[in-house]
Specification:
The protein has ten helices and no strands. The protein is an all-alpha fold. The termini are far apart. It is globular and about 60 Å long. The chain has one domain. α8 runs antiparallel to α9. This is Permease. Keywords: Membrane, Transmembrane, Transmembrane helix.
């Protein structure tokens, strides 16, 4: 198997994750720009990857849905509304996709493939807003009234992260942020996913390496529960392993834009996992 053909996919995934980590240190505005660019990469190549017709109009819908979701996550004032615009954008994006298919008239080829492929692209770009929502979500660990809960699993960091912000431990508002941690996990997981070998060996290695990376950084970082770090690492590893499996089965995309879209897609989808893991496991 010629693994060189997969290089653009891996580079896109690694660069996207690194850009998210860097932007998270600069603040919400910088992260918004990166997420919008990520949505653009997916939108331009996804219809081409799916081999659908009406590519320009469907690319516009996919990109617009992602940008609206990202803007919504960046400007809302209530925690409960951080992912609200992602839901709205997803709903309207799917509606517009169906409307485009209707306007194309009857007898058009590959109508079902176009609809399903475009809807999948809308799902991916709207979930990318989770990166922004995750950065803005107040992720500081709070003790419960009786001292129980997840805070009991808190670990002491091995380095004084309060005086060393290289890991991006603090967000723009001073609260603990897990965006840089998640992006770093995606970088490591992508590198492991590039290891040539049988899927039976490489796929578990991707999951284990991602989880181990997340837990190790949590130990260095401090103020993160091992449960949270483990779940986040496992989620990222499973996501990357799934994309690797699908990519190996289908083969490398022929067009450059399609390869960029495949590389950017798992990083974009990870946004939702970051946000909802925070909401579920950090109180």
């Amino acid at each position: 198997m010629d693994y060189v053909k997969y290089l653009p996919v891996a580079l896109t995934s690694a660069v996207s994750a690194a850009a998210i980590a860097s932007a998270s240190w600069l603040g919400v505005a910088a992260l918004l720009v990166v997420v919008c660019a990520l949505c653009g990469a997916v939108a331009l190549g996804w219809p081409q990857l799916m081999g659908v017709t009406a590519r320009k109009s469907l690319s516009a819908v996919i990109m617009a849905a992602g940008i609206v979701a990202a803007l919504g996550a960046a400007v809302v004032n209530q925690v409960e509304a951080l992912f609200f615009w992602s839901s709205v954008s997803l709903a309207f994006g799917v509606m517009v996709v169906f409307a485009i298919q209707v306007l194309r008239g009857s007898g058009r080829p590959h109508r079902l493939e176009s609809t399903l492929g475009a809807c999948t692209g809308v799902v991916i770009t709207t979930t990318a807003a989770g990166w922004i929502a995750g950065l803005r979500y107040p992720a500081g660990m709070m003790e419960t009234a009786n001292g129980d809960g997840l805070s009991g699993l808190r670990v002491r960091g091995l380095v004084p992260y309060e005086d060393w912000e290289f890991w991006g431990a603090t967000g723009p508002g001073g609260e603990l942020s897990v965006v840089a941690l998640s992006a770093f996990v995606m970088c490591v997981g992508t590198a492991v996913a590039c290891v040539p070998g049988r899927d039976a060996l490489v796929l578990p290695l991707v999951v284990l390496a991602s989880a181990a990376t997340s837990i190790t950084v949590a130990l260095l970082w401090g103020e993160l529960t091992l449960l949270f770090a483990g779940v986040l690492g496992l989620a990222g590893g499973v996501l990357l392993a799934s994309f690797r499996r699908l990519l190996i089965l289908q083969g490398p995309p022929e067009q450059l834009l399609s390869r960029l879209a495949v590389g950017a897609a798992p990083v974009a989808a990870m946004g939702a996992l970051v946000y909802f893991t925070e909401r579920l496991l950090i109180t």
